[in-house]
Amino acid sequence: MSDMPAIMISELDIDRLEGLLDKKPYRDDPAFNTLKAELARATVVKPEQVPDDVVRMNSVVTFEVEESGQQFQMKLCFPHEMKDAQQAISVFAPIGGALIGLSVGQKIDWTLPDTKHRHVKIIRVENPA
Hints:
Structural class: alpha/beta
CATH superfamily: Transcription elongation factor, GreA/GreB, C-terminal domain
Shape: globular
Number of strands: 7
Mean pLDDT: 90
CATH architecture: Roll
Low-confidence stretches: none
Number of helices: 3
Distance between the termini: 33 Å
Oligomer: single chain
Helix content: 10-25%
């Protein structure tokens, strides 16, 4: 990943995410090292300081994978929320970890498990009330 864009995460989201990552089965799984690195580089602010156009947990995000030109609209969820969610993606999925903390217009170069790079651009963010 090169030239990583600045990201912002609320204290609430980072506390919950780091708490989950400290538990088994996530704690010792190297598959989550990239998400851990994202959280470590984030600017952490109070929840009310996160602008409306920033992806946070439970945001509905419209994003484009530039290599394919495909756009997706997904709700960013915690892993345990996935069974009840429709059109959702887990923050622990590779692309979910790429979305957290980005704002509208930002792009990120993200390596997927198949070792291919994808360029993801945030088109729109809808946050829960």
